[in-house]
Design brief:
- The chain has 2 domains: about 5-60, no CATH class; about 70-145, no CATH class.
- The chain is about 55% helix and about 5% strand.
- The protein contains 7 helices and 2 strands.
- Strands 1-2 form a two-stranded antiparallel sheet.
- Strand 1 and strand 2 form a beta hairpin.
- The longest helix has 16 residues, at about 80-95.
Length: about 150
């Protein structure tokens, strides 16, 4: 199946497809069925190439259109990816996410991992949860006390 045919099929299903860097974005998420998702995954390269001439979709809103994603200027530091995954799972558990919601949170976080990490740190703080980073700081402090 060609990229234009897939795009037409997505439009017929009420799905808007765009690209953001090397990622495909499909909206609204509720309209993306499993078969459409599989089709997009299989033909991701072709779809990205077909969408290459279109402007990239902004991260959050049209206000952000002139700005790079928040984390574009730096990669995650060692351990931060583990922290991000732990935070997503912790927030998902705390709020009773369904498996599909949890998977979607992980997928969205992939697009801008640095911004997602800051977001999930804020959510954990707001909810009074012990974060991965805070837990590691406690472990380091206790270790230092034992060494003295």
């Amino acid at each position: 199946m060609s990229a234009p045919a897939i795009i037409a099929q997505l439009k017929a299903a009420g799905v808007r497809i765009s690209r953001r860097g090397d990622s495909l974005l499909a909206e609204p998420r509720a309209a993306v069925t499993e078969p459409l998702l599989v089709l997009m995954r299989i033909h991701k390269g072709e779809l990205l190439a077909a969408l290459r001439d279109e402007p990239a979709t902004p991260a959050v809103s049209s206000v952000a259109a002139d700005h790079a994603p928040l984390g574009a200027d730096r990669p995650l530091e060692p351990g931060e990816l583990d922290e991000l995954v732990a935070l997503i799972n912790q927030i998902a558990d705390h709020h009773g996410f369904m498996p599909t919601q949890r998977a979607e949170a992980h997928q969205i976080a992939e697009a801008d991992q640095v911004a997602a990490l800051e977001c999930f740190r804020s959510l954990a703080a707001r909810d009074g949860l012990t974060t991965f980073r805070k837990a590691n700081q406690i472990i380091d402090t206790v270790g230092s006390l034992h060494e003295q």
